[in-house]
UniProtKB/TrEMBL annotation:
It comes from the Bacteria. This is diacylglycerol O-acyltransferase. InterPro entries: Acyl_transf_WS/DGAT (IPR014292), CAT-like_dom_sf (IPR023213), O-acyltransferase_WSD1-like (IPR045034), O-acyltransferase_WSD1_C (IPR009721), O-acyltransferase_WSD1_N (IPR004255). It comes from Panacagrimonas perspica. Residues 303-445 form the O-acyltransferase WSD1 C-terminal domain. GO terms for biological process: biological process involved in interaction with host; glycerol metabolic process; response to hypoxia; response to nitric oxide; triglyceride biosynthetic process. Pathway: Lipid metabolism; Glycerolipid metabolism; triacylglycerol biosynthesis.
Length: 450
């Protein structure tokens, strides 16, 4: 048995009836040319015959005397984890997103390994889809998508013979007990050595705060917003792709990165959405931006290795260029500070930055240190295939919690950036309108570049 890290345990303990804490991904595929009408059913039958499972897909949580461990499931049953289903007619993307919204709202049973994969047919354009969800105590968003990508190939014929994701797993070998003990001692030593540097970085941040550095965002800056309320168990998932070329062109003209453009699009979309609801705060919204700490993303150990940076969305600014510049300045400030620290130092620094905001919150969800989570996961840079089918879209389906009713996560691929928005359906009405607002925000930036 392997003991869970404190972060992994937290995702189990924070789970509530209205707050399932799993993450997922919706993928769209075009079947091979000339595929017969029963292609999806044949593929489902072949996948259902799988006879092996690799870590972490074979592990379920176990609690002993308040301590959580992963144990191998001695009675692993693929039928519980792999589901073949068809959309109701007419099989539009609308029906697909509604199905994902419902399925993503349901908890994973802790009596089994905490994951499930759905193969979905019945789309009106002949494509098929997969929806995979896995508990956040098992993987974070980056490592989860990386595991799924290991079952794909950039060669169509090769992909047709590859095993399903649960047979490949993370590719990480369990660390021997003695080596793990040595690693823990090394971590404690590293933490002791890093303490002075973290303290210096925090002191510099507090000096910047006192001098009102324009690019610094603290955990006390987030305004009260309808984005920060208690949530219900109902979810709404919305997804759409946007042109990478268009976004890179904007970034090049304005002197920013693709990620700066992503943040500016989200800011512009949220400004429009909240304005339509009469709920735009006078002060700028603050985004929590996850930063992966996995050193080797291809062979990352299962579990969570992530910290957060705080960035302004400058939603108080009507001018899209000024808004972009404010966002870029905030992101550049964070990058400069983060690049000077190692993994242990980043975790300690982020905790120190977030603590004042968490204390200020004191159970009041409207006083969260952030207003929204915006996460950018790097995806494949070449066309990819799964079971002979070409990947057309890879849309993350993240999680929301009390106080954070909206999560925007995206995957950047070679030609498209795939946005996945998950929200509490009751707290944030008609959140799918953000998809149109994202396009409008991109057009607004393009027009400002002319």
């Amino acid at each position: 048995m392997r003991r869970l890290s404190p972060t992994d345990v937290a995702f189990l303990l924070l789970e509530r009836r209205h707050q399932p804490l799993h993450v997922g991904a919706l993928s769209l595929f075009t079947p091979p040319a000339g595929s017969p009408p029963g292609f999806a059913s044949k593929l489902a039958a072949e996948l259902a015959e799988s006879t092996s499972v690799a870590p972490p897909f074979d592990r379920r949580p176990l609690s002993r005397l308040g301590v959580f461990y992963w144990e191998d499931d001695p009675h692993f049953d693929l039928a519980h984890h792999f589901v073949h289903m068809a959309l109701p007619k007419p099989g539009r993307i609308r029906e697909l997103l509604a199905m994902v919204s419902r399925v993503h709202s349901a908890h994973l049973d802790r009596a089994y390994p905490l994951w499930r994969v759905y193969l979905i047919e019945g789309l009106e354009d002949g494509r098929i889809a997969t929806y995979m969800k896995i508990h956040h105590s098992v993987v974070d968003g980056v490592s989860g998508i990386r595991m799924f990508m290991k079952s794909m190939s950039d060669d169509e014929l090769h992909s047709a013979g590859m095993p399903p994701p649960w047979e490949i797993g993370s590719g990480h070998r369990p660390t021997p007990v003695l080596r793990e003990a040595i690693r823990k001692v090394d971590r404690l030593r590293a933490a002791a050595i890093s303490a002075p540097r973290v303290l210096r970085e925090l002191q510099q941040t507090f000096r910047d705060a006192r001098s009102q550095h324009p690019d610094l965002v603290t955990a006390l800056r987030a305004p009260r917003s309808i984005l920060n309320q208690k949530i219900t168990a109902s979810r709404r998932f919305a997804a759409q792709s946007y042109s990478t070329a268009r976004m890179r062109a904007v970034g090049k003209t304005l002197g920013g990165t693709l990620n700066d453009v992503v943040m500016a699009m989200c800011a512009g979309a949220l400004r429009r959405y909240l304005t339509d609801l009469g709920a735009l705060p006078d002060k700028p919204l603050v985004a929590g931006v996850p930063v992966s700490l996995h050193r080797d993303r291809e062979h990352a150990e299962p579990g969570n290795a992530v910290t957060f940076m705080l960035a302004t969305l400058a939603t108080d600014l009507a001018d899209p260029v000024k808004r972009f510049e404010a966002i870029k300045g905030s992101m550049d400030y964070n990058k400069q500070r983060f690049q000077a620290m190692n993994q242990t130092e980043l975790l300690a620094y982020a905790l120190g930055m977030m603590t004042p905001g968490l204390l200020n919150m004191a159970g009041n969800w409207e006083r969260m240190p952030i207003n929204v989570v915006i996460s950018h996961v790097p995806g494949p840079r070449t066309p990819m295939f799964w079971q002979g089918c070409q990947l057309n879209g890879l849309y993350p389906v993240s999680l929301v919690m009390d106080g954070i009713a909206l999560n925007i996560t995206l995957v950047s691929r070679a030609d498209q950036v795939d946005f996945g928005l998950i929200a509490c359906r009751r707290t944030l009405p008609s959140v799918q309108r953000l998809l149109d607002h994202l396009e409008e925000a991109l057009v607004e930036l393009e027009e400002a570049c002319v």
